[in-house]
Amino acid sequence: MQIMTNSGVRLVRRTLGFLALGVGIAGILLPIIPGWPGFVVAIVLLGRRDPALRHMHVFGRRTLRAMRRSRVRQMRRLGHWLSAHYVGMRRSITPHLIQAEKMFG
Fold it and tell me: Among 4, 50, 56, 98, who pairs with 8 as Cys (CB 3.0-4.6 Å)?
């Protein structure tokens, strides 16, 4: 039996992480399954410093900022509401993600 190299393990983790990210996105679009467990698993597998994950995070934050600055009143209200929920979720989940990264390192 051959032992996987470090790059092989990284490839498997990244593949599983993007698969979990796909499940999280599907969970947002489909009301049948929740999306947040997929995102949590993806972040744990990929790591918070993964370049692709960072780019998606920055894109999401810029989208929220654009919504908050929109000229359409309903879009501004939705942007403020989503931003408040994002901040609350991030504050509650981040310590757990850091702990999980240390465990699964």
Answer: 4
Interhelix angle 51-68/6-29, rounded to 10 degrees, is: 30
Q: Which amino acid is at 71?
A: R
Give 18's contacts (C-beta < 8 A, 6+ positions apart).
Answer: 42, 46, 52
Backbone angles phi, psi at 71, to 5 degrees: -80, -20
> Per-residue pLDDT tens for 41-76?
888 888 777 888 888 889 999 999 999 999 999 999
Residue 1 lies in a domain: no
- Domain limits at 41? 6-104
Has residue 25 been placed in a domain? yes
Confirm if 35 and 26 have CB atoms less than 8 A apart.
Answer: yes
Structure confidence by residue, pLDDT tens digits, 87-99: 988 888 788 878 8
